[in-house]
């Protein structure tokens, strides 16, 4: 993760969009951690940062997470997904 707050915030917003591409989709803690582990060296730290920034909400016991905020990376992530599925 970058040290500068602005850069850390941007990276966290991007990772939240990639790991939880469907807004309000509920995902278990283990699944989210696995998704983040494929993207970052510290998946638990990224998960915590997403919650701290208000991008992601969680149940009181931390068993389930969901993204609550639309980010500026929605179209980029969608385009990457279409490219991967289409094999381009």
UniProtKB/TrEMBL annotation:
Which InterPro entries does this one have?
A: DUF2087
**In terms of domain of life, where is this protein from?**
Bacteria
Q: What range(s) does the DUF2087 domain occupy? A: 1-67
Q: Name one Pfam family in it.
A: DUF2087
Query: Could you identify this protein by its name?
Result: DUF2087 domain-containing protein
The source organism is: Xylanimonas oleitrophica
């Amino acid at each position: 993760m970058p040290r500068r707050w602005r850069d850390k915030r941007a990276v966290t917003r991007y990772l939240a969009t990639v790991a939880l591409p469907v807004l309000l989709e509920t995902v278990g803690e283990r699944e989210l951690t696995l998704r983040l582990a494929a993207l970052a060296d510290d998946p638990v730290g990224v998960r915590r940062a997403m919650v701290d920034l208000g991008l992601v909400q969680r149940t009181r016991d931390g068993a389930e997470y969901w993204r609550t905020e639309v980010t500026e990376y929605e179209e980029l992530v969608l385009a990457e997904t279409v490219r991967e599925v289409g094999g381009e």
